Amino acid sequence: MDRDHAAPAAPHNKNTCAANCTSYAQQSMQKWRLWFHQHGEVLPHAARCREPRCDVTGCRVTKRLYRHSLNCLDKIEGTCTVCRPLLIYCARHAVACKTRLCPFPYCYNVKLIRQQGRPFFQRAQPKYG
């Protein structure tokens, strides 16, 4: 039985790979921006909700995103395609928020960072060794 062999894979092209990764990251961030635009009002609830089967629309997904952001190491650099839209959404809220003890996630932190004049996302430091 003759089998057709698949053509050898195209040689790895660093530029094409980087473009594809960048495109994917942009699509992912756009997806989450749209999600927060539509369901962002549930974020304060989701950050405090402890009910595993909560019936509030969007709570379960938002809760997972929020919990991811609490442990994500790429969040500070702004390179995580899940955390970045979440943090941008929270930052936009914080800029307009006048509530002193706001229950919105990251609101206090963003206000503090802005007050200190620091950039919201830190650039990655080179790792040696």
Automatic annotation (TrEMBL):
Major place of residence: nucleus
Keyword Nucleotidyltransferase in record: no
Alphabetical list of Pfam families matching this protein: zf-TAZ
GO biological process, one term: positive regulation of transcription by RNA polymerase II
Catalytic activity field: L-lysyl-[protein] + acetyl-CoA = N(6)-acetyl-L-lysyl-[protein] + CoA + H(+)
Cited InterPro entries: Histone_AcTrfase_Rtt109/CBP, TAZ_dom_sf, Znf_TAZ
Subcellular location: Nucleus
Domain TAZ-type intervals: 29-110
Keywords from the UniProt entry: Chromatin regulator, Metal-binding, Nucleus, Transcription, Transcription regulation, Transferase, Zinc, Zinc-finger
EC number(s) on file: 2.3.1.48
GO molecular function, a single term: zinc ion binding
GO cellular component term, pick one: nucleus
Name of this protein: histone acetyltransferase
Species: Meganyctiphanes norvegica (Northern krill)
